[in-house]
Amino acid sequence: METSIPEVIRTVPLQYYVFFATALFAIGVTGVLIRRNAIIIFMCIELMLNAVNVLLTAFSAYRADANAQVFVFFIMAVAAAEVAVGLGIIVMIYRNFQNTDVNLLSRLKW
Prior knowledge:
Blueprint: H1 5-10, H2 14-34, H3 38-63, H4 67-97
Helix pairs in contact: 2-3, 3-4
């Protein structure tokens, strides 16, 4: 007998998804606050967005409602656009300063 995806997701308790997403989000926040490299900061922001996506998908599966999963799709599209623009900016900063340290970006002020 084949089971559907929401039934498979419901075999794991909801608290595990919450703990996993909390750990991912905490790692992302720690990376943003501690690290100074712009690329690592972008990766940590993506990690935080993925933690939110995990929670939305888990809650959506537990409630048997696909609205949150549609919202996850839009979050992923916005995150992809953010990465494209952000990496373009980081590449231009690296070409000018040969460094991606965010502390050195105060030179961009007028």
